[in-house]
Amino acid sequence: MFKAAINAELLKDAIAALAVIVDEVRIKIKPEGISVKAVDPANVAMGIFELGSSAFDEYSADESEIGIDLNKIMDLLGIAEKNDTVRMELEEGNQKLLIDVGGLSYTLSLLDPSTIRAEPRVPQLDLPAKVVLNGADLRRAVKAAEKISDHLLMGVSDDTFYMEAKGDTDQVRLEMGRDQLIDLKAGEACSLFSLDYLADIVKPTNKVNEVSLSLGKDFPILIDFEIANGAGRISYLLAPRIESE
Amino acid sequence: MFKAAINAELLKDAIAALAVIVDEVRIKIKPEGISVKAVDPANVAMGIFELGSSAFDEYSADESEIGIDLNKIMDLLGIAEKNDTVRMELEEGNQKLLIDVGGLSYTLSLLDPSTIRAEPRVPQLDLPAKVVLNGADLRRAVKAAEKISDHLLMGVSDDTFYMEAKGDTDQVRLEMGRDQLIDLKAGEACSLFSLDYLADIVKPTNKVNEVSLSLGKDFPILIDFEIANGAGRISYLLAPRIESE
Amino acid sequence: MFKAAINAELLKDAIAALAVIVDEVRIKIKPEGISVKAVDPANVAMGIFELGSSAFDEYSADESEIGIDLNKIMDLLGIAEKNDTVRMELEEGNQKLLIDVGGLSYTLSLLDPSTIRAEPRVPQLDLPAKVVLNGADLRRAVKAAEKISDHLLMGVSDDTFYMEAKGDTDQVRLEMGRDQLIDLKAGEACSLFSLDYLADIVKPTNKVNEVSLSLGKDFPILIDFEIANGAGRISYLLAPRIESE
């Protein structure tokens, strides 16, 4: 059993953040909220998504698992107005999700979860450095780097967080000291990441006040922020690229 | 003789509503206003368009008929500002239409009406059910249906008007009771229509308060609304599709 | 030595006005400001660009010449907010330009000026007629003409400035009398210009109050207006087309 109502824009934002990683997901439904763990097809990025029951206007659920095509949901939500309420109810047998948006009733066929890649194991990483910054700053640096290169170097050196991209001839660098950051835990950290992935991942951070980045030396980065006014959270784990000289 | 002045946006809206059916039209000019009847090239949709002299700031006309390429007019009006006045005057011999928009004078060559498909005969239909609803509601249902299917079923059942689209796996349905409608004349009605045509036809209804739909059982639908603040009217007649099972 | 700071939008507008003529330019840097003279690859249009030191918030420079790819600069400035300050500094040896926008540091490799077409000689022309008009009026006439033709005839006849385009069947004409113009110096003038070029050239005039046009009979046109609130100026010289009958 699953029956819930939620603000349309909030749901849109949450699903958009997840959709940058995969198209088809297994959603775990529990009495305390819904969650997803998914890996992108190339095994480079992982998304860990949690939306607690408090994000919903109404929420009641038993434990179950459903398979969903995120593009279909995004498409349907495209018709909703910002302040519409989206009502969802799982049909007996978990084969169909009934969605009501402003009087329009959708009957969405669900995917068999067993046909979707299983939940990945989240690796335990010891990431020595941690930086908390404004999401818009992060997004702007990534956009600037994209103009110049395919890769972005991110690191912490003493009390400074830096992002740097090098093109064939040009270079862009952003440095943020402790004063310009919301928080900084210094530690040895310097890793290179694919801008293809980063650009997608930071898209939803544009309206996020605090994004936390955990970094190591040639290690994956953990990008982590709250969604739904604190009622949910999304974390991305992105594998590093090895610099070819 | 034809000489008229009209608000640019009002003219744009009126022509846009007509242009969803055909590109080239015969416009009938009379002392009391202008009118067009046209059928789309595939004979599926008919548009019946009337714009009375009261829609114009200035209007004086003898009876005549001109042939016009609607795309050209739309293109020229694209340059007009919302509140510009468009002045039109037919040249002696009805070969050219002089159009003035904010000091810019266009000389538009007209088409020989005899080269354009003749006015169709409007069939007399006995459509038992009639629904009056807000244009934005209609447009939203059609947009939602398009995400899922190529066809939309529209009907009246007891005191409820419904629109329903079925895709391979998913389904969308809008039901509106007597309370949610502006008016309802109940009657046996249930017909299937091509969303290709419907999507075009309902585009101009987005800012229309009252759209009236007349329906029958596997019969054409008559979609009808006022334009130009009541000084004009456009009706579309759309042939039904037969459901292939 | 060159070190300067300037408002991001002002710089964007100035470079956009220049970029309609060429992609790669030699910029002459002098203590009193920067300047560019460039001809388009087909030798049809010339741009003469000057931006005085007063356009900058900070400015200090020795004489030098640098080669720049305008598209790269436009691309980077795309990330700047309207009110950001852009700081630029030339590296020792004039090989790289350091650009800082809101904490993001770009290192832009410059082009060897000797690989860029040399500054053209600006011809001395005796253009008898001169018209000063609002930039938005000019832009609107050019946009209207583009709908109909590839060429625009511009001329002065008695006390009237006119622009006229003829298509295969249609025609558009704008006439402006002395009263509708900011200034008019009457003189024999009537020349035909390519709308391909004109459309690009008048794009930046949309927010310009006074654009001056100097014209002759089958002669180039000089289009001239202030940029950066009067601290700079751009002039375009566009060669006439010969009307093929």
Textual characterization of the structure:
Chain A has helices at 8-19, 70-77, 135-146, 195-202; strands at 2-7, 24-30, 33-39, 45-52, 58-61, 64-69, 85-90, 96-101, 104-109, 129-133, 151-157, 160-166, 171-177, 183-185, 189-194, 211-215, 221-227, 232-238. In chain A, strand 8 and strand 9 form a beta hairpin. Chain A has 4 helices and 18 strands. The model of chain A has no long low-confidence stretch (mean pLDDT 94). Chain A has 245 residues and is of the alpha+beta class. Chain A folds into 2 domains: 2-115, DNA Polymerase III, subunit A, domain 2 (DNA Polymerase III, Chain A, domain 2); 129-238, Proliferating Cell Nuclear Antigen (Box), CATH 3.70.10. Chain A is 16% helix and 45% strand. Chain B binds chain C through residues 72, 75-76, 78-79, 102-109, and chain C through 137, 140-141, 143-144, 147-148, 169-176, 180. Strand 9 of chain B pairs antiparallel with strand 13 (171-177) of chain C, so a sheet runs across the interface.
